Amino acid sequence: MILEVLLSLSKLLAPGDDGSLQQALTLAVNEPAAYLRTHPETAERGFVEADTPSLPWLALVDGLLARGHAMEVDHRTDMEEVQWNLSKVKNYSRFSPKTRAWMESVSKMEGGGECLRALAPHAAADGLVIAVMDIDSDSYVTLILGRDDYTKATALAAKAGYILKDIREHDPND
pTM for this one? Predict the structure, then answer.
């Protein structure tokens, strides 16, 4: 069941993927050691082994990061770095000019979570949700989602036993 849910989630979060993300997720679920050998970015997280229960979730995270559908920042990151990282995410263009200007005006704000929570109401005014994928670390894996996609993604993540939530509802570092 977890594979089917993660495949559905990957199709929702990485539309237009060439199928390589689904192949990676299938490998992570069915042959975790082989996945780690072929995906060193996940193995390099330092706390991941073939028997790590969250390996499929981390495979999804790293796949989304590699394809530009998510970004990851540290909890000590300032707004300037948050904005720069967000600007590399494919959905960044969905932010209004007003929201982008606001981010630039508060570039000295400190703390990754604080920055994302401060951005969230501006994103909401644009019809977007600043969503975080909880990976049990001190970083923020962040997605920019439309409201409908957010609702679907949250339900799918919960069904698989993982947390993907609006930053205003869940801070992975609390």
Answer: 0.95
